[in-house]
Design a protein that fits this description.
The complex is a heterodimer of chains A (442) and B (318). By secondary structure, chain A is α/β, with parallel strands linked by helices. Chain A contains 13 helices and 19 strands. In chain A, the strands form 3 sheets. In chain A, strands 1, 2, 3, 4, 5, 16, 17, 18 and 19 form a 9-stranded mixed β-sheet that branches. In chain A, strands 6-7-8-9-10-13-14-15 form an 8-stranded parallel β-sheet. The two termini of chain A are 34 Å apart. The C terminus of chain A is likely disordered. Chain B has a 5-stranded parallel β-sheet. Chain B has a 4-stranded parallel β-sheet with strand order 2-1-3-4. Chain B is 39% helix and 14% strand. The mean pLDDT of chain B is 92. Chain B has 13 helices and 9 strands. The relative contact order of chain B is 0.17. Classes of the chains: A alpha/beta (442), B alpha/beta (318). Chains A and B meet through α6 of A and α5 of B.
């Protein structure tokens, strides 16, 4: 690969406290140097990227790629393409596929498919329990040796406190987090949306905030008991934020993520029985959404994760009770975070890059999350002043279930590099979903 | 112009204005008389085809709709679908498309999922009438309750009506709350806290903790059916205790400062939510409710089909 000198980018890399307009040299798949005095060697390609932000590639610790078993919704390759189109260079694949990823062979399959796609880096997550049945531990050791970066029974909570305790203890051996989907199933049973005035009006069974918070509290207590690393998936309530804040004050190894829909939308979005707003955990109230925004700003919630959940279009075309949970999120995440968190003045751009890249890399011990010279050139270039219209049919994901269809969002990913290789370039072609001519004042 | 009076569908009372609700009740008045004639038929919907699409078992509501349709001279087909769950076969959207392909004019739908009527209405050109969707709304029941109250009191505004029982799972309760509050009644709800929805006071109702307090306050009680499965699901300890604490009994009513009108949407569990003496007593309007149900459904069918309220007294014989 020819060396590339990116000139005049606003390089934002919180891992080295960098936020300035300067140059970056990419050579042999790595970052070779950053600075105004860095020049390309003979024959280097020089790209003037003035006006664009360059950051370490985004990392999403929570995506559903549906392969094996549900390839009509997404495959590892289409999911990885959707990822790079959204500026992600690393994605962690949840194991609730069919069959589930609960052994070293299955982990190896996901990893190999990810490598074959050669787009975003695909990090497999293994199951906590065999068959995700919540009964006995899966083989964490063999799965980590095959490439698993964490364990989770996501889609299902680990309901047995004993199993969760042993998982947290056993995972310490391998230095991996146990990512838990926090939901007290008895309290949430049959629920289709957040329990509140909207569920009362619509006559839908509600899921109270307490269903999440009870489980969060339990996991925090078990983290203290075991000294293990618990990672709390898709936090959605104000009460959860308060619990995590206290746990961090006590110095426990508790990390947490929040999804763009939970810092953007509220339960009113379910009005009219809109199944594109059906997810688990459900969209909550305005004060919950505001608490999530605040927690991302102050670092109580460590990172943004999309919970990218592709569903075939006709699966959502049914009664609200019967529709599946979840939305796709990889291609809209950066724009939503840019709008809701940075343009709104709640946090700085470097803080956002920390939550979407540096923090997940650091906390889950993944590669990436930095542009330090010598590190692999996993990076994103995005135009903060451009806008794009979300047209589901033009998204790279195989599925189209997004609640933002037809909306115009700020912030356009222009290019994504993984290991110095260009894996995604968005042209100015309007058919590509972004208009180069349409610039706003940032 | 009158298609615009109600819009295309009737999915609930929440979205209606007080004027629309009053127009339906007024339109029902002349239709009451049709059912008292020796020949109970007017030509208003002659040539219209209506499908009664029932995904849940129903006797009273289905028969009431069918009488209303036949007394308006519509052609009707009853479909009793086996189950509401998509796992049991055709999806609702496919059912809708098939009905549409048969060029029908109206669908009356009863379905176990909240929102099913709206879902159907958004996907077919025919008029859709909600005959009960999950725990959301049962608008024609709400309307017939309003009509019955108006018959007895001459007005709705200022009435104190308390809905008693399992409000949480009741579509009848939601339609009554919307209809009554829109027409200016004061609405109370009374039942075990386990069977009241969260944030119910945000709907503009007063919560009564004890049935005695509700009886002292109200002009009328609308007593909901207690589904027997609420006990096994753990919402109440036993039917016996429910009757003891929340039952509408002669003894309790006798201590009220005035006589209360008693409504019940049926079918009743005698001796559970309501005592037989009360259900069969002089202040019960449970059977007039059923009679009014036919008239209200005739009015809704007539108005959705584009009929003018002014012509209803002629039975559509324009």
């Amino acid at each position: 690969m020819k060396p590339v000198l990116f000139a005049n980018a606003r390089i934002v890399d919180p891992s080295q406290g960098l936020d300035e307009v300067t140059s970056l040299l990419m050579q042999d798949g790595r970052v070779a140097g950053i600075g105004r005095d860095v020049h390309g060697p003979e024959g280097a390609q020089i790209l003037d990227v003035a006006g664009l932000v360059m950051a370490p590639g985004l990392i999403d610790v929570h995506v559903h790629l549906r392969e094996p078993g549900q390839e009509d919704r997404e495959t590892i390759a289409t999911g990885a393409l959707s990822a790079v189109a959204g500026g992600f260079t690393g994605i962690c694949a949840m194991p609730n596929t069919d069959p589930v990823i609960d052994n070293q062979g299955a982990v190896g399959f996901v990893k190999a498919k990810g490598e074959a796609a050669a787009l975003a880096r695909v990090y497999p997550i293994g199951c906590v329990s065999v068959g995700q049945r919540g009964e006995r531990l899966a083989e964490f050791g063999e799965m980590t040796a095959a490439g698993a970066v964490a364990v989770s029974d996501d889609g299902h909570p680990v309901m047995s406190s004993h199993l969760m305790r042993t998982a947290l203890e056993y995972a310490r051996t391998f230095g991996i987090p146990v990512a838990d989907h926090c939901e007290d199933l008895a309290l949430a049973a049959g629920g289709a949306m957040h329990e509140g005035i909207v569920s009362t009006r619509l006559g839908l069974k509600g899921i109270p905030a307490a269903a999440e918070e009870i489980h969060v509290a339990r996991d925090i207590i078990l983290a203290e008991l075991t000294g293990g690393h618990v990672h709390l998936c898709h936090m959605s309530t104000r009460g959860s934020v308060e619990l995590i804040r206290r746990a961090k004050h006590r110095g426990l190894q508790v990390t947490a993520e929040a999804a763009p829909h939970h810092f953007t939308l509220t339960h009113e979005r379910c009005d009219g029985y809109d199944t594109s707003a059906k997810m688990n955990p459900p969209l909550r109230e305005a004060e919950d959404r505001d608490a999530i925004r605040g927690a991302l700003a102050d670092g109580t919630i460590d990172c943004i994760a999309t919970d990218h959940a592709p569903h075939h279009y006709d699966a959502k075309e049914r009664e609200f009770d019967d529709a599946p949970n979840g939305i796709i999120g990889l291609e809209t995440a950066l724009s939503l975070a840019w709008r809701e968190l940075v343009l709104s003045g709640r946090m700085t751009l470097p803080a956002l890059i920390d939550r979407m890249s540096c923090a997940p890399a650091r906390l889950w011990h993944l590669g990436g999350g930095t542009l330090r010279p010598g590190s692999p050139a996993d990076l994103v270039l995005f135009d903060p002043a451009a806008e794009w219209r979300v047209e589901p049919a033009r998204l790279r994901s195989r599925s189209r279930n997004t609640p933002w269809a037809g909306e115009t969002l700020p912030g356009v990913v222009r290019a994504t590099y993984v290991g110095g290789r260009s894996v995604f370039v968005r042209t100015g072609d309007p058919a590509d979903g972004a208009s180069a001519g349409k610039r706003r004042q940032a | 112009m009158n298609a615009a009076l109600l819009g295309k569908d009737l999915v609930g009372l929440e979205s209606l204005t007080p004027e629309q609700i009053t127009a339906i009740l007024d339109t029902a008045e002349p239709f009451k008389e049709v059912s008292e004639r020796p020949i109970k038929k007017v030509p208003a919907l002659r040539g219209k085809t209506i499908v009664n699409l029932f995904f849940e078992a129903s006797t009273r509501t289905r028969i009431s709709f069918e009488f209303a349709e036949k007394r308006l001279s519509a052609d009707t087909v009853n479909v009793q679908a086996a189950g509401s769950s998509v796992s049991k076969g055709e999806t609702l959207v496919d059912t809708a498309r098939n009905l549409e392909a048969m060029r029908i004019d109206m669908v009356v739908i009863r379905h176990g999922s909240s929102g099913a009527a709206q879902f159907l209405g958004q996907r077919i050109r025919s008029n859709v009438i909600n005959a009960g969707d999950g725990t959301h709304e049962h608008p024609t029941q709400g309307l017939l309750d309003l009509l019955t109250l108006r018959d007895r009191f001459g007005r709705i505004a200022g009435l104190k009506v308390c809905i008693v029982g399992d409000v949480l799972h009741s579509r009848v309760a939601r339609s009554n709350i919307w209809g009554l509050t829109k027409l200016g009644a004061d609405v109370g709800v009374c039942g075990p806290p386990t069977l009241l929805p969260s944030h119910v006071t945000d709907l503009g109702v007063t919560v009564f903790r004890r049935i005695e307090e509700a009886i002292e306050w109200a002009d009328a009680l609308n007593v909901l059916r207690l589904q027997l499965e609420r006990m096994t699901a753990g919402f109440i300890p036993s039917l016996r205790e429910y009757n003891r604490v929340f039952g509408v009994t002669t003894d309790r009513l006798s201590r009220a400062p005035k006589d209360l009108l008693i409504l019940h949407p049926g079918p009743m569990n005698r001796g559970v939510e309501i005592d037989s003496d009360v259900a069969d007593g002089p202040h019960s309007v449970i059977l007039p409710q059923v009679t009014n149900g036919v008239a209200v459904r005739m009015a809704v069918l007539y108005l959705l089909a584009g009929g003018s309220p002014d012509w209803a007294s002629t039975g559509g014989e324009t």
